[in-house]
Amino acid sequence: MRSTPQMLSKYLPPYDNGRTLFSNRVSIVIATPFMLIISFWSHIVLLTRHLIFLSLSAGMLAGCNSALLNKTPATEQPNSEADFVASYPDNHITVKQISRCSPGLDNIPAEQFHDIHYDDVWQRIRDDFSLSTELHRPQVQAQLNWYQKHPQYMNRVSQRATPYLFYITEEIERRGIPVELALVPIVESAYDPFAYSHGRAAGMWQFIPSTGKSFGLDQSWWYDGRRDVVASTNAALTYFTTLAKRYDGDWELALAAYNSGLGTVDRAIRKNKKLGKPTDYWSLDLPRETKAYIPKVLALAELISQPAKYNMPMPMIDNQPYFTVVNVSSQIDLAQAAEMAQIATDDLYRLNPGHNQWATDPNGSHELVIPITSKEVFSTALQQLDPNQRVTWQRYKIQSGDNLGSIAKRHKTTVAVIQNSNNIKGSTIRTGQMLMIPKSSKPVEHYSLSADQRSANKIKAKNKQGNLRKNEYTVRAGDSFWQIANKNNVTTRQLASWNSMAPGDTLSIGKKLVIWQPSPTAISQNNRTATTRKLGYKVRSGDSLARIAGHFKVAVSDIVKWNTLDSQDYLQPGQRLTLYVDVTSGRR
């Protein structure tokens, strides 16, 4: 570490130039004792000036420190710059605070100061908030009230964020952008890197496919960069920086555009300009979700800034790297990689949520994220492992009627992998030919956070009470999500979710879709009689679950169960519901 005088020396008035100039002049004159005396006293004067400057600077720093940090006992004054940081256990003072209270140091770049060490990432974030929380606005107060009423939500979010928050905070600070952006994944996904919305957005930063591709996030059967913690974070922060530049540093508009899109915000700005209205975020006519988006971020910043005031302590997250990135140079089985790192396979998936299958992408970047505590043991195991043993191979004899597509599907791989592994050009294969096909080293259930297993687990959770039956539907020519959902009295959102898709995804002919519907057993368990009939009901404008339940004299909980809904979901006009109604009871 450099001392404070060394750090400041770059910015002190130089005296070397004066000395050099003087020396050049006297070099042409015969040195005399008289001139030597003058030179000596000139240097003494300059040196004295610098000592006075340093004393004043140290005094300003000392005065600022004592004002900001009055918790330190007088008997424990720091003796060095290193002690200066260590002697304050709360570490509430930051480089920026020193700069603000010492005007003479305002122009010194932050990198010239030592880093202040925090124990807790939340405290580090707390000390660096820069956006106004707009507490006087009802929208912010409404979101703040919601978070206060749901303390367990914040605990869950903090637990999910633990592996990722340090890295995200580091990247934000490195780019010099508002640290409030570290709160965006709370609003977008509750810090769930596996999150997937009905709008086809994926990952903790919720990129839709097109925006993800624009920012270099690859998406394939093997890998989805939108869920990759490192890649998606870098893409999101680059996107935010681009948006902020577009809106001349207005981060509220940048956040709004991130949520609703550039076009939406630009149209709202043009509309207000035409009407002679202000064009700040709070004055724009934006979608309902976007109107709540910035208030959520600002409410979170307020809550985290003053946890004691709101009785909302944030679980501590260590302010140190949680993971590191290792280049494994070729495809590797994730279960095997987990064993090499001496961690559970699920834990490896949580650090590498971009990997959809049982192994890394054979054509990918071959970078794997592992806990930093596992780096040495993993690197050693990787060096000792034969590259040909990083995945398990099986021999397959081509049968009559086989094609590359059916073989790939049966063995949960891709046509390209089979082609590359067997030097096959084109799609021609012959019966009896032997193929080498990569396969997982463990049963599929062992890869519980792969894309297929996440979908299966979601369905199991839906059906944990045994009140649904699984049906399969084969897509035909001309089918659409809406037609299939309408035909089976389910919603397009449900149908897409059950099949790990989005309503806007393309359906391929022959694809099998899973459809879950109430089983006859579930109906009998609800004491339905012989006069009970299954009805299809089309939601109308103004309808609610309570209103429909009252109209047909059934319970809201039954409607939720029959249609596998969330009781908090909004009903959409045109949505189809399945009801089991006692036709003898009459309607209100």
TL;DR?
This protein is 45% helix and 9% strand. It has 588 residues and is mostly helical.
> Biggest sheet: strands side by side, in what order?
1-2
* Average pLDDT over all residues: 78
Structural class determined from secondary elements:
mainly alpha
Largest sheet: 2 strands, antiparallel
Radius of gyration: 32 Å
Q: What share of the residues does DSSP label as strand, in percent?
A: 5-15%
Shape: globular
Helix percentage range: 40-55%
**Number of helical elements:** 26
Number of strands: 8
Unreliable sequence segments: 1-34, 52-106, 522-530
The end-to-end span amounts to 80 Å
Provide a descriptive summary of the structure in words:
This protein has 588 residues and is mostly helical. The chain is built from 26 helices and eight strands. The chain has helices spanning 4-9, 16-26, 33-68, 81-86, 95-101, 121-126, 138-149, 151-161, 165-175, 184-189, 209-214, 229-246, 251-260, 262-275, 288-305, 334-341, 345-351, 375-384, 404-410, 415-421, 451-462, 481-487, 492-498, 520-525, 545-552, 556-562, and strands spanning 323-327, 367-371, 392-397, 434-439, 468-474, 512-518, 532-538, 576-582. The strands form four sheets. Strands 1-2 form a two-stranded antiparallel sheet. A two-stranded antiparallel sheet has the order 3-4. Strands 5-6 form a two-stranded antiparallel sheet. Helix 7 packs across helix 15, helix 13 packs across helix 14 and helix 22 packs across helix 23. The chain is globular. It starts with a helix and ends in a 6-residue tail after the last strand.
